[in-house]
Amino acid sequence: MTTQPSFVNPVLLQELSESFRLHNQIPSDLYTRFRIKRGLRNADGTGVLVGASRLGNVHGYILNEGEREPIEGRLTYRGYNVYDLIHGLEQEDRFGFEEVGYLLMCGALPTRRQLDEFQRSIGLERALPDNFTEDMIMRAPSRDIMNKLAGATLALYSYDPNPDETTVENIMRQGISLMAKFPVIISHAYQAKRRYFDGDSMFLHVPDPDRSTAENILHLVRPNGKYSDDEAKLLDRCLILHAEHGGGNNSSFTVRVTSSSGTDTYSAIAAAVSALKGPRHGGANLRVVRQFEEMKENISDWTDEGAVADYLCKILDGEAGDGSGLIYGMGHAIYTLSDPRAVALKKAARPLAESKGFSREMDLIELVEKLTPAIFAEKKGSDKPMCANVDMYSGLVYKMLGLPKSLYTPLFATARIVGWMAHRLEEVTTGGKIIRPAYKPLCKSVVYKNLDERG
Ligand SMILES: CC(=O)SCCNC(=O)CCNC(=O)[C@H](O)C(C)(C)COP(=O)(O)OP(=O)(O)OC[C@H]1O[C@@H](n2cnc3c(N)ncnc32)[C@H](O)[C@@H]1OP(=O)(O)O
Ligand SMILES: O=C([O-])CC(=O)C(=O)O
């Protein structure tokens, strides 16, 4: 696989970019002057209310006399606390991601018969269309599995006999099919990456209709296709924790925006995958891993609080890390004192870290979690509480499960597909209006000049 060189003249590129910079400045004070809700946020940082949803609740603060009062985070799916859902599954010692998909998309927990039927349909839908892996994945492999997943999702439109109909029945059918196929697509795309970009062998295992999503992922990704029940159950819980997060998160809102135009399921979901890839959203789980790899290379004693604190200051100053100034895995738009998913993942990671020899790594992550809020507050003069988010510990859990880094964000998408489909169903049936916010126009009228009269 070779990339194509660019034929765009570099001198032209320089000139175009300089012109862009000259004509596209928007001073920050204009945002305040025109009361622009930058990032669709109110002045107090809360999100602008743009819709209503019965899907769940992301609860991170209480508004008291107009002020945000920090609280421990709580996440509910259709009214059920995500902790209670996982606790129930633990008690019955069974897989639950499919059931959570049912709950989110349909609105209520299934009976045993309904769940059996749902799982049977997922099993039958797992296989990709004939030659899909060869034509859509192997012929043009990508070093980024999220890009391949978005492309493959769009491509599935061509194989659907009824792709455009927006009835509940048709979208539900498409949701079950995508939920079933995502694990296969990301695993095959990963195998193609191994073969064509990493020079490794490729193992194209066949999905098993009788196994759960988590079991299929481990079976499809691992060269020998083997895994333990504990490993598969842990992955199942990770999928559940990533399944849904309100209508306002960037990728779900993307589904809302695209669905409101009346477009098809494949287009809306491909757009959501593309949004999730971003490093400030789901792509942060990969950045977290890179951030810790870099810290471990540059800090000789990982338990030295002073050295770790200095490094975090450098990251915030853009002198370390990826230069963005962001400490990945920290901060959240809604959660203040804690992200319940990070709390659950941390709890699951600790015993595994002890038994698999990752304790020092886990200690370092916990140290960063502990030090960042005060360092951030001091450097930025901010009094906003800051907590670890879902992406802080997920990478470590996946690493301990032997899953490859290039699948960390695709695993997020494989879980979030059920939330996205539920939002699509809700938007199509209850949204009722094309989403169309406004941008303050800042351009002044200019008199047109013919080509020969310009500079
Ligand atoms: C699945 C998920 O999407 S979870 C989030 C995963 N993302 C990350 O881990 C990336 C690091 N974190 C962040 O970039 C942010 O905390 C976000 C994107 C998650 C939330 O951003 P916001 O909603 O803007 O958070 P908030 O309003 O509290 O931010 C206030 C300021 O602090 C900055 N900030 C927040 N978190 C961080 C951080 N971890 N490192 C550095 N700066 C940060 C914001 O960029 C913002 O700066 P600005 O005022 O100059 O724009
Ligand atoms: O809610 C958000 O903004 C981001 C997030 O944590 C998610 O989508 O899981």
TrEMBL record:
<dbReference type="GO" id="GO:0036440">
    <property type="term" value="F:citrate synthase activity"/>
</dbReference>
<dbReference type="InterPro" id="IPR016143">
    <property type="entry name" value="Citrate_synth-like_sm_a-sub"/>
</dbReference>
<dbReference type="InterPro" id="IPR036969">
    <property type="entry name" value="Citrate_synthase_sf"/>
</dbReference>
<dbReference type="InterPro" id="IPR016142">
    <property type="entry name" value="Citrate_synth-like_lrg_a-sub"/>
</dbReference>
<dbReference type="InterPro" id="IPR024176">
    <property type="entry name" value="Citrate_synthase_bac-typ"/>
</dbReference>
<dbReference type="GO" id="GO:0005975">
    <property type="term" value="P:carbohydrate metabolic process"/>
</dbReference>
<feature type="active site">
    <location>
        <position position="332"/>
    </location>
</feature>
<comment type="pathway">
    <text>Carbohydrate metabolism; tricarboxylic acid cycle.</text>
</comment>
<dbReference type="Pfam" id="PF00285">
    <property type="entry name" value="Citrate_synt"/>
</dbReference>
<comment type="similarity">
    <text>Belongs to the citrate synthase family.</text>
</comment>
<dbReference type="GO" id="GO:0006099">
    <property type="term" value="P:tricarboxylic acid cycle"/>
</dbReference>
<feature type="active site">
    <location>
        <position position="391"/>
    </location>
</feature>
<dbReference type="GO" id="GO:0005829">
    <property type="term" value="C:cytosol"/>
</dbReference>
<keyword id="KW-0808">Transferase</keyword>
<protein>
    <recommendedName>
        <fullName>Citrate synthase</fullName>
    </recommendedName>
</protein>
<dbReference type="InterPro" id="IPR002020">
    <property type="entry name" value="Citrate_synthase"/>
</dbReference>
